[in-house]
Amino acid sequence: MKAIVTAPGGLDALKLVDLPDPGKPGAGEIRVALHGSSLNYHDLGVALGKPPTDGRVLMADGAGVVEEIGEGVSEFKVGDHVVSCFFPDWHDGRPLPGGFARTPGDGIDGFACEYTVRPATEFTRAPKGFSHVEAATITTAGLTAWRALVEIGRLRAGETVLVLGTGGVSIYALQLAKAMGARVAVTSSSDEKLERATALGADYTVNYKTHPEWAKKVLEWTNGVGVDHVIEVGGPGTLSQSIQATRMAGSITLIGVLTGIQGDVPTAMMMGKQIILSGLIVGSRRHQLDFVQALDTGIFKPVIDRTFRLEELADAFRYEKSGSHFGKIGLEW
Ligand SMILES: NC(=O)c1ccc[n+]([C@@H]2O[C@H](COP(=O)([O-])OP(=O)(O)OC[C@H]3O[C@@H](n4cnc5c(N)ncnc54)[C@H](OP(=O)(O)O)[C@@H]3O)[C@@H](O)[C@H]2O)c1
User: Fold this and answer.
1) pLDDT digits (tens, 9 = 90+) for 153-173
2) For 231, left (φ over 0), alpha (ψ -120 to 50), or beta?
3) Is 255 in the pocket of ligand 1 (CB under 6 A)?
4) Could you say which DSSP state residue 266 is in?
5) Mutation to probe ligand 1, out of 146, 169, 238, 305 (largest number of atoms < 8 A from CB)
6) What Å distances lie between residue 166 and 44, 92, 212, 228, 323, CA to CA?
7) How many CA atoms lie within 13 A of 317 on its CB side?
8) pLDDT on residue 15
9) Residue 206, burial from CB neighbour count under 10 angstroms (0-12, 13-18, 19+)
10) Model's pTM, two decimal places?
11) Ligand 1 midpoint to CA 328 (Å)
């Protein structure tokens, strides 16, 4: 079967290879014909060789159709549309230690291939009416936005949400927050992308390049109060502004590292405002089942900026690296 694997040398060295067919499912397993994936910043890091890997099948997100069922599997039947889970072993409850050691497309082989055989518990049903590419976006970006706003943030209608930039996680968070009756502010480096965010329902927008002190603008928008929730994908370069833009006892979910992995935090201001800062890495299978149930109601479908063919994965990553996208970048075959 066709697969895309890493090789030393980054994007230029990504290889389309022919791997052995994974065969028939054993007890508790399913065989899935994969047809879609979506790109995440995390996958780009692996493809660029951080950490260096050789021969790793890329991509954390995978969606497709169940082809065969192993003994004892009752949750799925042949023909079901399914989508992968980011943490194969985290089914419910508290997160497990171990970082990305068991994350597909990083610590173990991912879904940039035609077929896979894995335990049925490593998948959930795909949301009703979603294409394979749309379904694949829930594994990482979608579930991260869901967990930040619903599981951790306990978002309520009428609250205010700030999302940073217009990448996969942030646009998912914008769509979800609007669907739940929140008011949403969006930052971006591009006025054109901010217009697209407004068309999707954003209530307030600010260009973080032309307004480096964007927290002041967000505070003005909230009459000096600050927002209830921040989807923090920037990290050290944005956290100080995010803290300034948050209301007393508001919540910041620390999700991303777009500006680096270490830096100064205005601890006194954070303490004085009694802000709740939560780190988060995607979510459990239980969270994904709940998210799929919500998406089944038809609240929204993810924004797919552009879709590439599997063989074009290196070009898809170059497109992601250019920062031109708005929402998700898809991969199909
Ligand atoms: N913790 C988790 O579970 C989890 C899950 C998914 C992703 N992440 C992390 O979250 C971050 C975003 O991931 P993604 O997949 O959504 O990435 P992405 O789709 O590649 O989004 C990148 C976008 O971020 C925006 N951006 C870049 N620098 C920024 C800055 N200084 N301030 C505000 N926005 C900035 C840009 O938006 P504009 O073009 O509009 O300026 C850019 O297009 C990454 O660090 C990723 O590793 C974490």
Assistant:
1) 999 999 999 999 999 999 999
2) beta
3) yes
4) -
5) 169
6) 17, 30, 16, 19, 9
7) 22
8) 86
9) buried
10) 0.97
11) 11
Angle between helices 236-245 and 214-221 (to 10 degrees): 30
234 vs 213: CA distance, rounded Å: 14
Mean pLDDT of 245-251: 98
Distance 67 CA to ligand 1 centre (A): 35
Question: Using a 6 Å cutoff on CB, does residue 39 contact ligand 1?
Answer: no
Q: Which CATH number fits domain 142-279: 3.40.50.300, 3.40.50.720, 3.40.1010.20, 3.90.25.10?
A: 3.40.50.720
Q: What fold, for 2-137+302-332?
A: Quinone Oxidoreductase; Chain A, domain 1 (3.90.180)
Q: What tokens does 221 get?
A: 């928008």
H-type helices in 180-304, by residue range?
191-199, 214-221, 236-245, 267-272, 285-296
Q: Can you tell me the distance from the alpha carbon of 110 to that of 56, in angstroms, rounded to the nearest whole number?
A: 8
Q: Is 238 in the pocket of ligand 1 (CB under 6 A)?
A: yes
Check pLDDT > 80 for residue 51. no
pLDDT at 8: 86
Q: Is the CB of 257 under 6 A from ligand 1?
A: yes
Q: What are the backbone dihedrals phi and psi of residue 268, each rounded to the nearest 5 degrees, phi first?
A: -65, -40
Task: Pick the closest to residue 69 from 22, 25, 126, 34 (CA basis).
Answer: 25
Using omega within 30 degrees of 0 as the cis cutoff, is the peptide bond preceding 51 cis? yes
Question: Which atom of ligand 1 approaches the CA of 327 most closely?
Answer: 19
Does any ligand 1 atom lie closer than 6 A to the CB of residue 104?
Answer: no
| Cβ 190 under 6 angstroms from ligand 1 | yes
Q: Are 174 and 198 in contact (CB under 8 A)?
A: no
